[in-house]
């Protein structure tokens, strides 16, 4: 947790309240050993006394500390503090916020003045979305380079996944988020499907969620697998055709996670596009899928990934089968994807080479 000094505080006060502001005094207010039976807290507040144009004022500055309750990263903690700043003053009898800010890399406290929305600037890259290649292949334009590309994508994943991290709490958080987050499985069940759903009954959703609880406890034995991940590795987040080969966009859901999440994300899309050929799965997309999977397993030697990948396929399957995200799927495509996410949970080890049988 960042330690605030007198110099840092005074510079911030002058920037936030004007140049005629001066720091009078500051010190701890409360501590974890003064909370009675409550022995755990999220931060250590400072009482700050300062003067603005000769008038004494007091404020309490709080900095959250990292913990294993969804606050491991500074962006987690920023979300909590932004929520408090935006909403606390609207609640009767609640303490009123006086300011919001952040500490930069140089140790300077920077005030945020009445934030409304945040934005990010990214470098402009050359190329086009990879899904356009998959559309071309679906329509019959398959090239040898397309199969080579699938191998290149697998190589890239193998490379980034080689960076490991020892943090069992963080791995458990990622599994918990996979199942319970509003962005992931339960959020998709609630928001990406109508209820009642004409092609996936309430009982099927209930059984799916119950089965996922078994998988959550299974994955608790795989915390050693935590590694660097992209988090949203699908054809709409990959640019191809640029001078440096392919590039990736929109890293999501954290820096660390389970490699299976990345691996199945692109694989699910190969399956999706392959289903559009008709009654038989596309041989072109099967070839790309197999190249992608086998190259990854060859490069990493990670056969264990097949023991943990099933619930990640459920997440990605719910996305690509959703009528909200993909309203134009033929009924046969959507039904095949939904059968896949049910059946894939029923085996302890994913049969990547025989994946078609999960859709029967």
From TrEMBL:
Family matches, as InterPro entries: Aminoglycoside_PTrfase (IPR002575), Kinase-like_dom_sf (IPR011009)
Short name of one Pfam family: APH
Keyword Glycoprotein annotated: no
Molecular function as annotated in GO: transferase activity
Domain Aminoglycoside phosphotransferase: 146-267
UniProt keyword annotations, A-Z: Transferase
Recorded superkingdom: Bacteria
Protein name per UniProt: Phosphotransferase enzyme family protein
The organism of origin for this protein: Maridesulfovibrio ferrireducens
Organism phylogeny: Bacteria, Pseudomonadati, Thermodesulfobacteriota, Desulfovibrionia, Desulfovibrionales
């Amino acid at each position: 947790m960042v330690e605030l000094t007198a110099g840092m505080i005074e510079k911030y006060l002058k920037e936030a309240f004007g140049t005629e502001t001066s720091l009078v005094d500051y010190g701890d207010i409360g501590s974890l050993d003064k909370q009675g039976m409550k022995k755990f807290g999220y931060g250590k507040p400072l009482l700050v006394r300062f003067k603005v144009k000769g008038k004494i004022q007091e404020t309490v500055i709080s900095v959250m500390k990292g913990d294993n309750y969804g606050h491991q990263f500074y962006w987690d903690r920023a979300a909590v503090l932004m929520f408090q700043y935006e909403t606390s003053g609207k609640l009767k009898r609640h303490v009123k916020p006086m300011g919001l800010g952040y500490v930069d890399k140089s140790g300077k406290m920077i005030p945020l003045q009445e934030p409304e929305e945040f934005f990010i600037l990214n470098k402009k890259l050359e190329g086009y979305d990879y899904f356009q290649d998959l559309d071309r292949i679906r329509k019959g334009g398959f090239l040898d380079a397309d199969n080579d590309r699938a191998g290149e994508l697998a190589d890239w994943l193998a490379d980034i996944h080689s960076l490991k991290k020892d943090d069992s709490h963080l791995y458990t958080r990622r599994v918990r988020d996979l199942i319970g987050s509003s962005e992931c499985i339960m959020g998709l069940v609630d928001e990406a499907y109508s209820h009642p759903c004409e092609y996936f009954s309430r009982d099927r959703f209930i059984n799916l969620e119950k089965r996922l609880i078994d998988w959550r406890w299974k994955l608790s034995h795989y915390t050693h697998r935590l590694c660097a991940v992209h988090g949203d590795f699908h054809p709409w987040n990959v640019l191809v055709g640029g001078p440096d080969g392919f590039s990736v966009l929109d890293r999501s859901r954290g820096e660390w996670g389970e490699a299976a999440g990345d691996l199945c994300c692109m694989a699910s899309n190969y399956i999706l596009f392959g289903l559009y050929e008709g009654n038989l799965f596309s041989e072109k997309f099967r070839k790309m899928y197999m190249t992608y999977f086998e190259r990854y397993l060859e490069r990493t030697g990670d056969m264990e990934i097949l023991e943990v990948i099933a619930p990640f396929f459920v997440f990605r399957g719910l996305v690509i089968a959703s009528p909200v995200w993909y309203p134009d799927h033929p009924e046969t495509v959507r039904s095949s994807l939904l059968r896949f996410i049910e059946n894939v949970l029923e085996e302890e080890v994913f049969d990547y080479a025989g994946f078609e049988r999960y859709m029967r």
